């Protein structure tokens, strides 16, 4: 317990120092060191009820604080692109990303209005200078914050050049055939999903 | 006459009894070996057996340490890679450990197997404390337990509050799909009869959410020898919506445009459930990682202890053996000199 006490004290001080230095904090996330008052009220309540146990850490303690919304428009967009098994891009500065939102393809440039978007299977393109990196994402969410940060979370994603076009064609043909020969509802639904995914893959490869 | 005989006997015993006083802490072994009839047949068999068993225990603990170390390496990379997953959600929805809601569900994450130091009792202790913190007259706090060990500890005094428990999570390596299944199972909390059925339609699940705040308690992996008890809070979509309105905790959420889905609440529903599965996925991995680390250090110290014990036993064994040899020699020599004289 004591072993952690020093680190705890130190981290708390650094948080409050960071908060004190910047403009008055807005309670919400575009500025991520959320109001320190919130955290301390938890700690206080904890100390009152359970005085002999250290309060548990909360996720905020493990996060890099995000910068506040800058007054002038930044030239770059900071992208975090995460998967359950990897952080594909973390804090990378790019020019533009195009995300496959359920409402259609969405291009995101620095200074984009704060948005929460659901993703559908499709192509995520990351533009950096003349380089374009394309991923095929299955589904997920994208959060665009007012401070030109974009967080993209996908359940599964692969770089598009790792997809084998011949296998996609084969799979598409297979599932189309299955769909036409399906008898039960379950089979039909499964085949439909297969066709949807493969045609999305196909259009990603050709388009 | 009798006294003289006794004194003589006493002198004969003396060299044998002497080593016992040196190894006083271990002396519980020795008296059993003393044959009531004749000290001469003092048996070293008991010490030898004990040495053998200590040696075997040491072998086992060493092997467990090795296994834990190799498993740790695998799960550590996974846990570290999954750390990015929950961060966007915390960035968007903030961190609200102090939120005051009616229905709390505590998700306590523990391991299925023991022999891993204090990680399970830490998470149980934390859960009990959080339970205490969130209990009140019109509030309801329930446990959902992941892992065998926390269940064994919590079932004793808070059996009525246990809503669901899930075990055998670690038999197959965890992947994200499992986390999603787990989420569905947890979301079904109140329909416990159907808890096992994941095939229940998604719409059904969404309508039957029975929590206001989920609090995931787990041990975050820090290093092989240290872990940090952590609590992540996931709010229900209704609470998020309420807090996002003016004056709430999540006031800024209204400034976000929401794309996709028919209504805002639908998107929030998807969002919070996705958040929960992400948080849970990371939590389970972090806890597994801490478990392996804790087991490694626990097994390391127990093999060291076994080694020390073995050293002490070897010393006792050798002393006893040496003492009996010396006695026999003295007896032979004194017998021979008595004949000569």
From TrEMBL, chain A:
This is ATP synthase subunit delta', mitochondrial. Belongs to the ATPase epsilon chain family. Keywords: ATP synthesis, CF(1), Hydrogen ion transport, Ion transport, Membrane, Mitochondrion, Mitochondrion inner membrane, Transit peptide, Transport. It is found in: Mitochondrion inner membrane. Pfam families: ATP-synt_DE_N. Mitochondrial membrane ATP synthase (F(1)F(0) ATP synthase or Complex V) produces ATP from ADP in the presence of a proton gradient across the membrane which is generated by electron transport complexes of the respiratory chain. F-type ATPases consist of two structural domains, F(1) - containing the extramembraneous catalytic core, and F(0) - containing the membrane proton channel, linked together by a central stalk and a peripheral stalk. During catalysis, ATP turnover in the catalytic domain of F(1) is coupled via a rotary mechanism of the central stalk subunits to proton translocation. The keyword GTP-binding does not apply. One of its GO terms (molecular function) is proton-transporting ATP synthase activity, rotational mechanism. F-type ATPases have 2 components, CF(1) - the catalytic core - and CF(0) - the membrane proton channel. CF(1) has five subunits: alpha(3), beta(3), gamma(1), delta(1), epsilon(1). CF(0) has three main subunits: a, b and c. CDD domains: F1-ATPase_delta. It comes from Dillenia turbinata.
Automatic annotation (TrEMBL), chain B:
It is a peripheral membrane protein. CDD domains: F1-ATPase_gamma (cd12151). It comes from the Eukaryota. Belongs to the ATPase gamma chain family. NCBIfam families: ATPsyn_F1gamma. SUPFAM superfamilies: ATP synthase (F1-ATPase), gamma subunit. Keywords: ATP synthesis, CF(1), Hydrogen ion transport, Ion transport, Membrane, Transport. HAMAP family: ATP_synth_gamma_bact (MF_00815). One of its GO terms (cellular component) is proton-transporting ATP synthase complex. Pfam families: ATP-synt (PF00231). It is found in: Membrane. GO terms for molecular function: proton-transporting ATP synthase activity, rotational mechanism. This is ATP synthase subunit gamma, mitochondrial.
